[in-house]
Amino acid sequence: MSDTIIAVSYNYQNTPVELRDKVALSDDEAKQFIRAAMEGQGEIKELAIISTCNRTEIYAVLREPGHFFDWVTDQYQHLKQVNLKTESADPTILYNAHAIEHLFGVAGGLKSMMLGENQILSQVKSSYELILSLPYSFPILNRLFQDAVRVGKSVRTNTHLCKGAVSISLAAADLTRKIYANFSKLKVLLVGAGETTELTAVHLRAIGVVDFIIANRGEERRKVLAEKFNAKAISLDEIPSALTQVDIAIVATKSKDYLITHDMVKKSLSERKQGSFLIIDISSPRNVDPLVGDLPQIYLYNINDLDKVVAENLEKRKKELPVANEIVREIAAEFREWFKTLEVVPTISRLSGYFEHIRDQELGKFKYKTTEQEFQKMDDLSRKIIRKLLHYPIKELREQNNNGNLTVSKIDTLWDLYRLKSFKKDKE
Amino acid sequence: MILFIHSVNVLLPLIYGVALGMYAWHFFQNTSKIGEYASRALLTAIVLHLVYLVSQGVHFRIFPVATIFASMSMFALNISVIYLIIERISKDRKTGIFFLIIIFCFQLCSSMLITFESPTNSILSNSMFGIHTTLTLFGVSALAISALYSIMYLMLAKEIKRHRFGLIYDGLPALETLENMSRYATGAGIIFLGAGLFTGHLWSYKVLGYFFKYDVKIIASDVAWFFYLFGWILVKIRHLHGLKMSRVAIGGFLAFIIILFVANFVDTTFHSFI
Q1: Are A181 and A301 within one domain?
Q2: Please, are residues A103 and A141 in contact by the beta-carbon 8 Å criterion?
Q3: pLDDT mean by block of 10 residues, chain B; 274 residues
Q4: Which domain does B24 fall in, by range?
Q5: Which residues of A are catalytic?
Q6: Which residue of A has its CA nearest to B180?
Q7: Do B160 and A299 touch (CB under 8 A)?
Q8: What ipTM is given for this predicted complex?
Q9: A240 interfacial to chain B (CB closer than 8 Å)
Q10: Which of A360, A357, A336 lies closest to A412, judged by CA?
């Protein structure tokens, strides 16, 4: 029988976060898992692990499927002292085609909590690099992970599944990208020192913004955040003068009044040397006078606008799912085609066994009807006939496999012609 | 040869039209494969266009911009080349549709109205004429490109202001990029056009003995160039950005084109003295 690909998946859909934390594996722990599998005498031929905050998945190639989950449970107990039996863990276990499509879906961002998430592809790549760094051979998982990365890239290139911001802070960063090109020259005013402001600043820093001014009522928090972003800290009274210097203003406070008024911005426009001015008001109630948006060169967005952007982007991503699924299916079919061709060795051995079985059966009928010498001659003759009969089919199978011409349908035909599947059952 | 020139003259707007269709498809459907085909179609058109102009030059022994319609064809080629270079550098094909509309219209107009005749004036065979017209047309092309980028800027700015995230928002590069491209193109346009007009005056001096010959097109071009230069200095001094700069670029180009059309209406020859 051919090898089996299996996937054991603990993910955000089937495992609570507490257990996900317990089953998560660091690179070193993953290496220990893989070593245990590769150096053991069990049924595991190859093993790879993807471990992120939202999922820990173990992919393996097995000689015979059977007790793999027990092995996984034992390893967790042995290496991490986690008893999965008492944790009532209920991972998803997938085999062959389902396991392949699952991994491809993961790499494509189709299975992510935030549909179309980008980071997962680099995490799949890291898992692949980890098995490459180990001194074992992973012929099947090597190809499987290569194809998974291919799916990830193709989904990102040929669909919009991973495009458009799907959180408020990312939407703010996206808007920045649509207005400005040289991020390192931008100056950003952060009004408020809360979590949302900080997260937005993190995203802006990720795209290359370095110059921040932080305005906050509370001095202590203002200084903490200013230190974190290497920024200048100012009081709320200094906002009007800051408006003349900055390109972007992110406002997120709990104030019930407008902190940035129409007159304040209008006045700053005459003194500004910069061009476009992006103002993002994430406060509720609003802290920026909505009339500011009517001024020329001002692009004002409030939390409702950004929520709308996020909702629209999520909707757009969902619409891309059929195309992304098609990419997954196409590459999975290619992989399965390749995987099936690996069955040439079992096919040859099964075919030889089949012919040998018939020879034994027919020869057995004459065992007690002929002399020993005659029987020996018949045995030699039948052996030579079978060898000659099988010579060209086996040679052709090997050559076609080496040339990449051996298709699944050809192998299937061969198995059907000689009923090779039922042949083994009969023998058993 | 003349049959070849006539055939290519018909073929060129067709290929530019096909490229325009594909760029439009790419813009609206965001099919990257179609974008690649569009780029190849444009490259094919450019190569054919070059062959077409060289053939004209060889056959008629003239730099092929002696008439307004021949100039339009050269203008279409210049924009095509400049756009293709920008596309290859920026790896962005979404703005192609905007350029191809202009290119297609100019080439179609040229192909429909051009007449192929041997030169009657030896001045048109002078190499200085070639330099003058090439520089001038490059200048005008750059100014047209600047105006196109400014139009894109205004379109995108309007979309962002109105919180609309449709095709324009997805398809166009950042406002600052569009502004910079427009700024560079204007700078290049003023330099090339200035150099073109200057060589024209130099050529006039060499051939006719006058540095400044009274001719409605020369006056119109010189005045337009000075206005452009004034606008450029104004933008620099007053730190005009974004919307204002885009409006100046578009207004400047429109005024320039109108002046040239009026001048061409007054005097239908290349120049009054040719």
Answers
A1: yes
A2: no
A3: 87 95 88 88 94 86 74 89 83 86 92 76 69 86 90 93 86 88 88 91 81 77 87 82 85 84 69 55
A4: 1-120
A5: 53
A6: A181
A7: yes
A8: 0.78
A9: no
A10: A336
